[in-house]
Amino acid sequence: MVQGLSHATWRANITNQDLERIYTQEEKRIFYVAMTRAKYHLVISNSKNRTLFGNPKTYEKSNFLKLSYDSSLVKEAESVYEIEINTPIVNIEDNGNFHSDGRVFQTNNGELVRSKSELLIANEFHRLGVLYEYELPDDNIQNALPDFILPEYNNVIIEHLGLMTDEEYHKRWNQKAKQYEKEGRFYLCTNEEEMKHLNTTIERLLDQTRLWYETKYGKEKLELIKKNEENRKNEIK
Length: 237
Description:
By secondary structure, this protein is an alpha+beta fold. The chain folds into two domains: 1-98, no CATH class; 100-236, VSR Endonuclease (Endonuclease, Chain A). The protein is 39% helix and 12% strand. It contains six helices and eight strands, in the order αββαββαβββαβαα. It has helices at residues 16-37, 64-68, 116-127, 167-182, 198-217, 219-236, and strands spanning 49-52, 55-58, 105-106, 112-113, 133-134, 148-150, 156-161, 187-191. The longest helix has 22 residues, at 16-37. It is globular. The protein starts with 15 loop residues before the first helix and ends with a helix.
């Protein structure tokens, strides 16, 4: 079930325009994760009228439904009908490895991330006024969410590789990297060792990003981005 996001979820001081942008992106991310992780059944329903705290309230359909609709794949119900769901047999062991969505660390910018290292990276970008998006679905990248993208730098991708000693994680990353390379996407990576020298790591990421961007789009456009970053940095202070 995906329900509306509350304004109380976001503790950072941000504008209504930024808040609506975050809501839209978060809704898209939640639907994307739900739809790509479904293994047995996927049922999407919409309730036009509900009661909230004893008061009737009308809800609009999510805009994401229009993006995800494919007449050749989707069966749309025009009236009430029963859905028969066969519960799969799942072997559940109490081995302490249960993971939910995993986004438990709140950044200074208000969003939730999965690891302390991603928290450090996000907070440093925020402190420096660097505009970033976290786990934003990309239409050209299938079954994978980039850790960070930098929208002002033509969506340069930043990936933090925190579990490369894990075989399955390493395998998934290799598949992800192949997609980036196939789509011609410029991406940069960090690892856990580099988190010990955070300032140096962020400086490297920005130097490489800016060099790539300047080579493709010119110094004048780069300077405009840097000016925007400086303005945001001063506003934070």
